[in-house]
Amino acid sequence: MKKEGFSFNQVMIIYVLIVFSFFYSGPFFFDRFGIPGISVTHFVSLLIPGIIIGKISEKNLKELYLLRMPVNNRYLILGIALWFVTLMVSAVYSYYASSYLPEEVELMESFDYLFSNTSFSTQMVIIALIPAIVEELLFRGLILSSLLQERSVKTALILSSFMFAAMHFSLIKLIPTFLLGLVFAYTVYKTKSVFSGIALHFINNAVAVWTTYYFQNYDIEFENVVIYGYHPNGMIILLVFFVITGQILFVKRSLNETK
């Protein structure tokens, strides 16, 4: 039976080419088209090359990109719960990491300022929707589906998530993005559909867009928002503890029911 994915070496080559293309084409498209150039970069650098290579290699793109309806939808619900836990853990991590990486914080602040003059709907499309679709098709579609044919499930999930995190070119976001990638990859693997990853990715990005928009329009200081870990205290640690405990019990129950 013909494998619809790429070999491990082919995946690595495709990834390197796409990352270089993404890194160097980004400034060009941004200078030419402004903020919409970010979306152009996503399509031109992250999506189109994989599709072209897949067609040339005579791959079944539907199978390569896991373009099928999700199965076992309870894992999508589990994915949402795990995403929430990851959000909490990442918030606490980011708070402490920002103390050691002040340059990264300045970069993130300049990124927020860049989008302060765009409408809410534009931000939702450029920051939430398009990256969710394009990045999931690449990392949880082409890359994960290929790695699952070449490596163990554990290796495929971890490696594809690290590749996803590394492409964001940010030290302060490396661990949070890696953890999010794991949640997305696990959910896609269990539901056998990239659409699950797209849904989770969009929820994550949309929440970030909405909160940023809300803070900017209502003059709320970030350090006063407890849930994002900018003012950590015992309540945050307690909340994270109870949420994680609840999810462990939920996973354990789900696994027992499948036996």
Mean pLDDT figure: 81
Rg from Cα: 19 Å
Q: What is the strand content?
A: under 5%
The topology string of helices and strands comes to HHHHHHHHHH
Question: How many β-strand stretches?
Answer: 0
How many helical stretches?
A: 10
Unreliable segments of 5+ consecutive residues: 222-235
N-to-C CA distance: 30 Å
Percentage of residues in helical conformation: over 70%
Taken together, the total number of domains comes to 1
Structural class: mainly alpha
> What composes the largest sheet?
none
Shape: globular
General description of the model:
There is one protein chain. The protein is mainly alpha-helical. It has one domain. About 80% of the residues lie in helices and about 0% in strands. The chain is built from ten helices and no strands. The protein is globular, with a radius of gyration of 19 Å.
In short:
It is built from ten helices and no strands. It has 259 residues and is mainly α. The two termini are 30 Å apart.
